[in-house]
Amino acid sequence: MSERTTRGGLPVAAVVLTGIVALYMALVAFGNITDFGTNQEFVRHVLAMDTTFRDEDLMWRAVTSRTVQDGAYIAIIVWETTAAALLATGTVWWALRLRRDTPGRARTVAVAGLLMVLVLFGAGFLAVGGEWFAMWQSKQWNGLDAATRNVTVAGLALLVVQGARRRADG
C-alpha cells in the first residue's frame, strides 16, 4: 500500500461524514422552512415551559411572548441554513481537492459548519432547552434524544476531520 493510499482513507471519511451532516442540516432547514408550523410549536412549548412540572422555582424562566418565541425559531432556522451551506461548500471544495491532499480553506469551512451544529444542538438544545427551560421534564416536547444524536454525529465528524488534518499535515 502506498503512502498516498493510506493517507487517503481518513480525508475521504472526513469528506463523507461532513457531507452526511451537510445533507442532514439542509433537510432539517428545508423542513423547518416548508413546514414552518410544526417545529414552531415545539419551540413555543419548550420556551413557554407549559408541559414541564411547572415548578414555581423554575417557571420564572419561561418565555411566553409569541414574538420572542418566533424570533428564536427564525434564528434557529437561519443558523441551520448557514451551517448547511458551510458544510455543503466545505464538502464540495474538499472533495475536489482530495487528489492533491490539500483541503486548506475547504476544511476550515467544514469545521465552521460542524462547530455551528455542535453549538446549536449542544448549547442550544441540550443546555439551554434541556436544562434552562427544563425540556427534559416534558413528555410531549422533548428533543433531547435528537439533539444528542446530532451532537454525536457532528462531534464524530469533527474528530475525523481534525484527525485527517493531522494525517495530511504530518
UniProtKB/TrEMBL annotation:
| Keyword terms, alphabetized | Membrane, Transmembrane, Transmembrane helix
InterPro entries cross-referenced by the UniProt entry: DUF2165_transmembrane
- Transmembrane segments in this chain: where? 12-33, 72-96, 108-134, 146-164
Signal peptide interval: none
Q: Which domain of life is it from?
A: Bacteria
What is the name of the protein in this document? DUF2165 domain-containing protein
Which organism does this sequence originate in?
Answer: Streptomyces benahoarensis
Q: What is the lineage of its organism?
A: Bacteria, Bacillati, Actinomycetota, Actinomycetes, Kitasatosporales
